[in-house]
Amino acid sequence: MAKATPAEQLLLLDLQGLDSKIVKIDRAVKALASDPEIAAATAAATEAEATRREVAEEYGAAQQALTDSEHQVEKVQARIDKDRAQIDAGRGTARDMMALQHEIDSLTQKRGELETTELELMEAAEEVSPRLEGASAAADGTAAQLAQLERARDERGEEFAGERNDLVAQRTELAGRISAPLLALYEKRLAQHGIGAARLYHGTSEGSGMQLAPGDLAEIRAAAEDDVVYCPDSGAILVRSPEWA
């Protein structure tokens, strides 16, 4: 049976307390990484940004269509101006003048149709514009909310990291005061069972939270003070003290 002084065994409880705090911090950090509020905010921001892009594409298409229509009107108007200038200059035969006038009449009709289409496209673009403003505001708002949550998460993560570093430093100092064989035994139990040491208090193992069976308790009470004994349920080293009996 392994041996260690009662005072050294008591140090294991302090070591276990530090390890439990480190584990608690690690779980808190893991919980931060999967924060449901951030996950929901991320989904909302992604959806809002997708809506903004969709409306922006619609607005861009409407503006492009309006620009194309304006260019078509300009081209038709340029052709009308050219024909009218030729008529005004009187160059060509009477038949040529009639053909030019007929072309002007046709182009004028076409320009009217194009201007009607241009007006419709302008109205369509104006209809999309406020929807784009709304979608942009929503996307900016959800992005800002997400950024705020992420900043809070990162700040909390930094706090956890600082706390953990302090605990690790304390643990290193404390572990240095425990003999190598006892520390190795504790570490092994901690790795195997998730708890390395626990107090035996009035017949109850604080490692398992259960009252020990009379036979197990009698065997532990019969052991020498420097004997290292174990909890039959949790597998942890049971630390004893006369006032806890």
Describe the structure.
- The chain is 76% helix and 6% strand.
- The protein is rod-shaped, with a radius of gyration of 42 Å.
- It has a five-stranded mixed β-sheet with strand order 3-2-1-5-4.
- Strand 2 and strand 3 form a beta hairpin.
- It folds into two domains: 90 residues, no CATH class; 120 residues.
- By secondary structure, the protein is mainly alpha-helical.
Percent range for β-strand residues: 5-15%
Low-confidence stretches: none
Strands side by side in the biggest sheet: 3-2-1-5-4
Number of strands: 5
Category by helix and strand content = mainly alpha
Our measurement of the CA-to-CA distance between the termini, rounded to an integer number of angstroms, reads 21 Å
Helix content: over 70%
Number of helices: 5
> What is the C-alpha radius of gyration, as a whole number of Å?
42 Å
Please state the average pLDDT score. 93
Q: How is the biggest beta sheet arranged? A: 5 strands, mixed
- Count of discrete domains: 2
Shape: rod-shaped
> Secondary-structure element order, as H and E?
HHHHEEEHEE
Put the structure in a nutshell.
The chain has helices at 6-33, 36-89, 94-175, 180-193, 214-222, and strands at residues 197-201, 204-205, 210-211, 229-230, 237-239. It has 245 residues and is mainly α.
For this entry, give a set of tags:
single chain, 245 residues, mainly alpha, 2 domains, five-stranded mixed β-sheet, 5 helices, rod-shaped
SSE blueprint and pairings:
Blueprint: H1 6-33, H2 36-89, H3 94-175, H4 180-193, E1 197-201, E2 204-205, E3 210-211, H5 214-222, E4 229-230, E5 237-239
Parallel strand pairs: 1-5
Antiparallel strand pairs: 1-2, 2-3, 4-5
Helix pairs in contact: 1-3, 2-3
